[in-house]
Amino acid sequence: MEVKDLIRCGNLLQLKLGITNYNTPFATRTSHEYVISGSATLQVRAIAAQVNNGHTNVYNNLIFVKFMKVRSADDLTYTIKFSSTELGITDKTFVSDDGTWHLIHENKRQQYSFDIKVIMDVVPRAGSFSSLHEDTELTDFELRGEDGSVHIHRAVLAASSPVLRRMLGGTWRETTEGHVDVPGTSRTTLQHLKDYVYLYKLPESTGLEQLLLLGSYYMMPDLEQKCVDKLVSSLTAENACELLEFAAKHKVTRLLLAILECIQGGTVKVQEMRDYFLQGE
């Protein structure tokens, strides 16, 4: 099984596989385990059988994929959208499971190649609160930032974060006063947090870094992972340097490892980063 054009960057995995049946009655070939975003692995297996019908060799090939979490203690659930132009597959969805091999394609060729594109996502833990996003009548709690506040339902906050759940369910001052101050955070970032817990929506461009810090502080790993995936999806030599500095300063391990994986995989070249640093000097 020959591997070409391997790209790994955040929650994106792309590669091309080539397979040849060398006239053996039965053969199994299994790819390496490709780690996606440090959280799950994808593996491909091809099973080839050859029979002679009296005139020529007939090949029967089966292609399987296996998608599973890296750490069994990880309580998040991941999905992938699996696509392959050559195999005629578009956005076939798989959920991280216990290691089942899923049949995705059959063909009768002796030699063939196919492309793979996988985009991984995190399945949000809580149910949808989208119908309450615009509600103002029943809001009973307030998140206060440096330049303004956001009104929210405390039950939604409690369902979204174990840190906030303990705070809201205890005898903390914030519980009785009906608000909590979030130092160093803008109202815009708090609105982004509200948009996520109600709608699972992330900001389009700016604001992801500060939202990532809130997700880390409030122990919301699904929000952390989604922010990391979106940040590294548009990684360049310029912003890789800035994001590495940000991740190291704030000890955001998920982001740090995701950037290093992109650099190791060649999505961002070390030489390009060196040139950017030297240009700044």
From TrEMBL:
Query: What are the TM regions of this chain, as residue ranges?
Result: none
Supply the InterPro entries for this chain: BTB/POZ_dom, SKP1/BTB/POZ_sf
Pfam families found in the cross-reference section: BTB
- Every copy of the BTB domain together lies at 139-206
Which PANTHER family does the protein's record reference? SPECKLE-TYPE POZ PROTEIN
Q: What is this protein identified as?
A: BTB domain-containing protein
What species does this protein belong to?
Plutella xylostella (Diamondback moth)
